[in-house]
Design goal:
Layout: E1 15-19, E2 22-26, H1 37-53, H2 58-71, E3 76-77, E4 81-83, E5 86-92, E6 100-105, E7 126-130, H3 131-134, E8 142-148, E9 154-160, E10 167-173, E11 178-193, E12 199-205, E13 211-218, E14 227-231, E15 238-243, E16 249-255, E17 260-266, E18 275-278, E19 286-291, E20 294-299, E21 307-312, E22 320-323, E23 329-336, E24 340-347, E25 350-357, E26 364-365, E27 374-377, E28 387-393, E29 400-405, E30 411-416, E31 433-441, E32 447-455, E33 466-469, H4 484-490, E34 495-499, H5 509-513, H6 521-536, E35 545-550, H7 552-563, E36 570-574, H8 580-584, H9 592-599, H10 606-615, E37 628-634, H11 643-655, E38 661-666, H12 677-694
Parallel strand pairs: 33-34, 33-35, 35-36, 36-37, 37-38
Antiparallel strand pairs: 1-2, 3-5, 4-5, 5-6, 6-7, 8-9, 9-10, 10-11, 11-12, 12-13, 13-14, 15-16, 16-17, 17-18, 19-20, 20-21, 21-22, 23-24, 24-25, 25-26, 27-28, 28-29, 29-30, 31-32, 32-34
Domain Peptidase S9 prolyl oligopeptidase catalytic: 481-696
Family: Belongs to the peptidase S9A family.
Protein name: S9 family peptidase
């Protein structure tokens, strides 16, 4: 530590907050003032301190970045996807941060995707958008919408240059390359075209960042003339819009955490009034997919893990069962093609795909050989097809693209993401690594799955270092995924484990329900149980184990730091939701009201207030020996505001000053961190270098 970079000390400005007769004094509430020079000065001082404290890792960070770069095929081309008369694909170019969106006409007799040697442009390529050109002059760039009209003429696309996820929507004429004067600011994700491409539907948000309006825009007119098609006034709900694969209907999805309503507009009549498929009923969720004369309905009405039904597309009414509810098999989505339906599901903690032939024939599941894997449908824009595109990966298998023939049941590997030789010059070999499924026993006797990957032959005597990752919220499942950057940890002897804790969706809807609202603490105790199990089973030792999580997983990190500080040698909390109670008490903040069905409403319910106060990390910092903590956030994050980790680190320093706490704030990014791929690799190298340092491997 140098005198130039002393430990930052945040000033204390007492601010009272009283709810349900309980008064809390928050001395760091002032950090929520983003425009206050003192706030920026404090974040800048924390960045300088973090830079100084990690200066000794600069060489290691450079090595880790270079290892990721060397293992990645930088000039690359995705497997082209067919839509009508074109193949669509994305290219990356060595040295460039962002992808290039392209298409090429389908040639006579061409039935399989064209390939490119070493990622070179395809002959006859048409560049639709070049992210690198769009990003020129900006430190941050993100592409929101990318939607080609049904006739292939127009491209609707939107851009964000700050990370706050407020996009400017534009329309490009692909026949001339001209960008039209049509410019719509402050839009959200989601667009849909009318059948004749004269009309574009899009979404905007309210002051609390809730997507609440669907608009109709006529191509070639000013946005001031746009019409609101649907406005959602219930603050628990948000809206989305999309065009069905059949291109017959524009779907307006209206959803809260536990309730749905879907409205449809015939794509051939874009000025028509939206028709309701089924009125919202509290606690009933459903999703709609169009298929011929019917709408397919995936729903949980009397079906905890969801069932599939259908209703008339001409006069939606009663639902006719198609796939009954099967407890333990969670139906997650249905995709309709002219002669087949493909249902995405999960069972026994693994994802799966089930095919239903239309008009006869038994349903069947697509099988995969690995014990742990993730599989799902990839881009499949064609409705009239007998072949579907799948994405597949595992902890040891790089991202893979398959085409599956729904009639012959043949699975054809189109491409596996290349992994180039590492620093030792050796080619990547999955046999050099092994993956395992283990189970921890939670405090209440529940068995909690853990997925692990390590170098083949890693000892099971407690000597190996390890990282344990977790999330556990919103029914989001942390299914096995491959990471090139992770190889740098594995090759240094680190075990990587994923704790599939309650609050996620790995074992169905019950798994989610048992980790939310007044059962939220199960998420935290499950994670601690997984950490303890890794030690008990000889995978690692507590002083050789680092925990990592992001967003709601960052809340998890803060909670387990308070719950079991002795269980970890270090904790990485990225964009962490660590001041959850303060945020959920303020309905003016982004997302708060829509979150009440996930966490509870502490504003009106004293039981929820007391329960959240008992676990929210910022409220429960005490004078204990915390493990080393690295918190990473972004100034323009609109999902988890930067001041949550800033306040948390300030309180940790004040209450438990003997600890080692670092705060790193990206001053020009959002929830996902740096936008360019090289910048993202550097960020990952920074975090992994800190982890290796905590594990004694720096």
């Amino acid at each position: 530590m140098t005198t130039e970079n002393p430990v930052p000390v945040a000033k204390r400005v007492p601010a009272d907050r009283t709810h349900h007769g309980d008064t809390v004094v928050d001395e760091y509430a002032w950090l929520a003032a983003k425009d206050d020079p003192d706030t920026i000065a404090y974040l800048t001082a924390e960045n300088a301190y973090t830079q100084a404290r990690t200066a000794h890792l600069e060489g290691l960070r450079a090595d880790l970045f270079e290892e990721t770069r060397r293992r990645t095929q930088e000039t690359d081309l995705s497997v082209p996807t067919r839509k009508d008369g074109h193949w669509y694909y994305t290219r990356t170019v060595e040295g460039q941060q962002y992808g290039v969106q392209c298409r090429r006409e389908v040639r006579d007799g061409e039935t399989t995707p064209p390939v490119s040697a070493d990622g070179a442009p395809l002959d006859g390529e048409e560049v639709l958008l070049d992210g690198n050109r769009l990003a020129e002059g900006h430190d941050f760039f993100s592409l929101g919408a990318f939607d080609v009209s049904p006739d292939g003429r127009w491209l609707a696309y939107s851009t964000d240059f700050s990370g706050d996820e407020r996009f400017t929507l534009r329309i490009k004429d692909l026949s001339t390359g001209e960008v039209l004067p049509d410019e719509i600011p402050d839009t959200f994700y989601g667009t849909a075209w009318s059948s004749d491409a004269s009309t574009l539907f899009y979404v905007t948000v309210d002051d609390a960042w809730r997507p609440n309006r669907v608009w109709r825009h006529t191509v070639g007119t000013p946005s001031s003339e746009d019409v609101v098609v649907h406005q959602e006034d219930d603050e628990r709900f948000w809206v989305g819009v999309e065009l069905t694969r059949s291109e017959r209907f524009v779907v307006i999805d209206i959803h809260s955490k536990i309730t749905s309503e879907v409205r449809v507009i015939p794509a051939a009549n874009p000025t028509g009034e939206p028709a309701i498929i089924a009125p919202r009923r509290q606690g009933v969720e459903y999703a709609v997919e169009h298929h011929g004369h019917r709408f397919l309905i995936l729903h949980n009405d009397g079906a905890e893990d969801f069932a599939l039904a259908y209703t008339s597309a001409d006069a939606p009414g009663d639902w006719t069962p198609l796939i009954p509810h099967t407890p333990g098999t969670r139906l997650e989505a249905v995709d309709a093609f002219e002669n087949h339906l493909v249902v995405s599901l999960r069972s026994n903690g693994l994802t799966g795909l089930r095919v239903l032939p239309v008009g006869g024939g038994d349903s069947f599941d697509i099988d995969f050989p690995e014990p742990l894997y993730s599989v799902g449908l990839d881009a499949n824009p064609e409705y009239r097809t007998s072949e579907v595109r799948l994405g597949y990966t595992s902890l040891v298998t790089p991202d893979s693209v398959y085409d599956y023939d729904l009639v012959t049941r043949q699975l054809v590997l189109r491409r596996r993401k290349p992994v180039r030789p590492g620093p030792d010059g050796r080619a990547y070999d999955p046999a050099d690594y092994e993956q395992h499924r283990d189970w921890a026993l939670a405090d209440d006797g529940t068995r909690v799955p853990i997925s692990l990957v390590c170098r083949t032959g890693t000892p099971r005597d407690g000597s190996a270092p390890a990282v344990i990752y977790g999330y556990g919220s919103y029914e989001a499942s942390m299914d096995p995924w491959f990471s090139i950057a992770r190889l740098s940890l594995l090759d240094r002897g680190v075990i990587f484990a994923v704790a599939h804790i309650r609050g996620g969706g790995e074992l169905g809807r019950r798994w989610y329900d048992e980790g939310k609202l007044l059962a939220k603490k199960n998420t935290f105790t499950d994670f601690v149980a997984c950490a303890r199990h890794l030690v008990k089973a000889g995978w690692t030792a507590s002083d050789r184990l680092v925990a990592r999580g992001a967003s709601a997983g960052g809340l998890l990190m803060g909670a387990v730091a308070n719950l079991a500080p002795d269980a970890f040698a270090g904790i990485v909390a990225q964009v962490p939701f660590v001041d959850a109670l303060t945020s959920i008490l303020d309905p003016s903040l982004p997302l708060t009201v829509t979150e009440w069905e996930e966490w509870g409403n502490p504003l009106d319910d004293p039981e929820v207030y007391a329960y959240m106060k008992s676990y929210t990390p910022y409220e429960n910092v005490t004078a204990v020996d915390y493990p080393a903590i690295l918190a990473v956030t972004s100034l323009n994050d609109t999902r988890v505001l930067y001041h949550e980790p800033a306040k948390w680190i300030a309180r940790l320093r004040a209450v438990a000053p003997q600890g080692d706490y670092l705060l790193k704030t990206e001053m020009g990014a959002g929830h996902g961190g740096p936008s360019g791929r090289y910048d993202a690799w550097r960020e990952e190298a920074f975090i992994n270098a800190w982890i290796l340092d905590r594990l004694g491997l720096a």
